[in-house]
């Protein structure tokens, strides 16, 4: 009897629960409201147009070209330092010296002249001439170096007065002519023979060879009144800016044709002549 009573009780509870669910479902259906969907006569669905490929806006220095390549401007000379580079440790006079790299162009400007960023124009003109003549891309490996980056890549005494720090020196090679640097030097010499502002001036047209040991290269450099050219072989002049396996060329400015003065390194021009950000 007890078992029969339990079964009957369960059946009654189940029936009550089902009745309640049906009742609440009926109430929900009664409370539901619908809205008519109205359409205009001859209405049709909107067909979107096919997506179009958006071309990136060129950078300012890419809007003008020399041949098939962007024209080289002072923007290409910005310092290549990086705060991500690790601390470099050297020993000088028996003491440990730590060198920290700079933050690059995000942390400081180019050298200044008349409160504007400045790179000696002859360097820019020569590189654009080489690029147009060779019809190949000029790769600047080292343009301006701030004092921190200059010491970081090469802390030797011979590099302490580098003209890279005053915007008067550039190191580069040419893609596709990596192993023909002598040909590029001929282009530079031709520039002075064919350019109107230098044509007929022997001090600019005639290049001499510099054979003193202080040049730190095995091939005697070339120089005229305005520039000094050094050719580094594959295993010469290697530093963090020039870690590539190619020979490369360095051009230094010796004479400023605008001010008609010799271009020399000074502490003030290297240390105080650029903006820190």
Question: What does it look like?
Answer:
- The chain has helices spanning 2-31, 121-134, 147-153, 181-194, 202-205, 267-271; strands spanning 65-66, 69-70, 88-92, 95-99, 112-113, 116-117, 138-142, 169-174, 208-209, 222-223, 227-232, 248-253, 255-256, 261-262.
- With 277 residues, it is α+β, with helices and mostly antiparallel strands.
- The strands form 5 sheets. Strands 7-8-12-11-10-9 form a 6-stranded antiparallel sheet, with helices on one face. The protein has a two-stranded antiparallel sheet with strand order 1-2.
- A hairpin with a 4-residue loop joins strand 13 (255-256) and strand 14 (261-262).
- Helix 2 crosses helix 4.
- It is elongated, with a radius of gyration of 37 Å.
The secondary-structure class comes to: alpha+beta
- Taking pLDDT < 50 over at least 5 consecutive residues as the criterion, the unreliable ranges are none
The helix content, as a percent range, equals 25-40%
Strand content: 15-25%
Mean pLDDT: 86
Strand order of the largest sheet: 7-8-12-11-10-9
Provide a short characterization of the protein structure.
With 277 residues, the chain is of the alpha+beta class.
Give descriptors for this structure.
277 residues, alpha+beta, two-stranded antiparallel sheet
SSE blueprint:
Elements: H1 2-31, E1 65-66, E2 69-70, E3 88-92, E4 95-99, E5 112-113, E6 116-117, H2 121-134, E7 138-142, H3 147-153, E8 169-174, H4 181-194, H5 202-205, E9 208-209, E10 222-223, E11 227-232, E12 248-253, E13 255-256, E14 261-262, H6 267-271
Antiparallel strand pairs: 1-2, 3-4, 5-6, 7-8, 8-12, 9-10, 10-11, 11-12, 13-14
Helix pairs in contact: 2-4
């Amino acid at each position: 009897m007890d078992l029969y009573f339990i079964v009957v009780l369960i059946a009654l509870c189940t029936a009550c629960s089902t009745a309640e669910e049906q009742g609440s479902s009926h109430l929900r259906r009664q409370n539901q409201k619908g809205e008519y969907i109205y359409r205009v006569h001859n209405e049709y669905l909107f067909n979107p147009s096919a997506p179009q490929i958006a071309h990136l806006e060129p950078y300012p220095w890419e809007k003008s070209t020399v041949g098939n390549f962007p024209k080289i401007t002072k923007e290409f000379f910005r310092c290549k330092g990086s705060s991500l580079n690790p601390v470099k440790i050297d020993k000088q006079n028996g003491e440990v010296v730590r060198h920290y790299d700079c933050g690059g162009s995000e942390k400081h400007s180019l050298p200044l002249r008349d409160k504007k960023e400045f790179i000696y124009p002859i360097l820019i003109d020569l590189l654009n001439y080489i690029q147009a003549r060779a019809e190949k891309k000029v790769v600047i490996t080292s343009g301006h170096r701030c004092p921190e980056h200059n010491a970081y890549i090469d802390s030797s005494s011979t590099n302490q007065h580098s003209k890279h720090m005053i915007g008067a020196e550039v190191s580069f090679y040419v893609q596709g002519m990596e192993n023909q640097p002598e040909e590029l030097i001929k282009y530079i010499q031709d520039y002075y023979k064919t350019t109107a502002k230098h044509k007929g001036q022997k001090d600019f047209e005639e290049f001499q060879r510099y054979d003193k040991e202080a040049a730190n290269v095995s091939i005697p450099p070339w120089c005229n009144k305005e520039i000094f050219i050094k050719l580094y072989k594959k295993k010469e002049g290697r530093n963090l800016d020039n870690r590539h396996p190619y020979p490369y060329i360095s051009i230094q400015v010796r004479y400023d044709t605008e001010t008609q003065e010799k271009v020399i390194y000074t502490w003030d021009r290297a240390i105080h002549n650029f903006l820190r950000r």
